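Data availability (excerpt). All sequences and predicted token strings are deposited with the supplementary files. A representative entry, DUF308 domain-containing protein, is shown inline so that the format can be inspected without opening the archive.
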Amino acid sequence: MAGWNKNLIFYFLIALALFVAGVLSIWAKSSLLSLVMLVLGIALLVSGLIQMIRFFFPKEHHQGDFNALLRALLSIGASILLIWYQGVPQWLMVVLFGGYMLVYATACMVQWWLYRRDRVRGRLLLFWTALVLYVVGGIFLLSPSLTMDDMLILLGIYFILLGFTYFRDGFDSLSSKTRNRVTRKIRITLPAIICAIIPAKTLNDINAYLKENDEFEEDDHSESAEPDLEVYVHVTNSGFGLLGHVDIGFEGTIISYGNYDTESYRLNSVIGDGVFFLSPIESTIENYLSVEKNNLFVYGLRLNEEQKAQIRQAINRIVAKGIRWHTKIERENGFDHPQDYQEDYPSRLVCKTGAQFYKFADGRFKTYFALGSNCVLLADSIIGRLGTDVLSMRGLITPGTYLDYLDKEYHKKGSMVITRQFYPCNEDGKKLGVLESMRRG
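Structure token line:
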């Protein structure tokens, strides 16, 4: 009882804060922003002066810390801008806002162009969305000093809508009955730029936890509580993999979609041929952990028989569209010297797990696009049949969006998401344990 009350209070407090911020942003506009900057500037000035005093008057037997001096100077410099030159940070905020909208518009336009080339239906909305965003973003960039109030009004509306989403999540937590279906409805998510760093942030938090807690909690849920479908969110310790990757595990098989054909890479692997593979869960997870050095967040969903049939149908529809694609090690029959193919991920996976790779002959997954038709979109095309609403509002889609959504569902009482597990990467390929898992009746 205390667990869900804690989550309920959290959702309502966040919703209330967003409502207040949204209303004040619309009502007070620039005057509110000026006040916030003034308060923040005073706080930074006080902090900088304190650090400056500590540097020049260190405690006995301790020398001044030059890093502290640098932080003090930066704090004082930022406070000067926020208190006496507010026009500079305000101008920068509008420029960044306009630039973000242009990036958003470009992602929509690229996705529209790819859909047009692949003759995917229903692409017109993306085109018009991109045009509107280009116009609005251009206006903000061309006249930042005249559009500050307009930006704050848009942000205010967004805060209010996001607050409604948290408020609804709080009421969903009140339900004591297990839901066999999540109603698909409009959902406002965090900005894509924030969602993109959620996997890395979550991994850092867990690593910090592990530094103070050496033991893992074992997964002790009973056989009757075993999930029927699992969602795997991969996160590496460094590099591009910090943004995450999403796979689906169902009835002993993993289905994963991505830009796996290196020969089709364009724009530094942002675009390429869409490729998916099917492989056994156990050996693939073992390979993820020990060979690919991926950390795994695993969320388990409970399904009824009707939902299982829907998932099978969705996966079978994807497989039916696939054309068998052979990796380098298969094309060159190099299984007797696999060490020569260690740099090629598909070949490694085939050698380690017996995975089979496929390309799409047509459809929206024929071409992979990191900011659109990516691994998350394919996962949602399968799980979306259950009513998940994470992608109802289209935009820049990242694995962090799905990780945030699944984590919220896990905390809801009666949710279909019944388990949450974490497996850190390791050298020997054995599952070290579960950081956290929970069984719900």
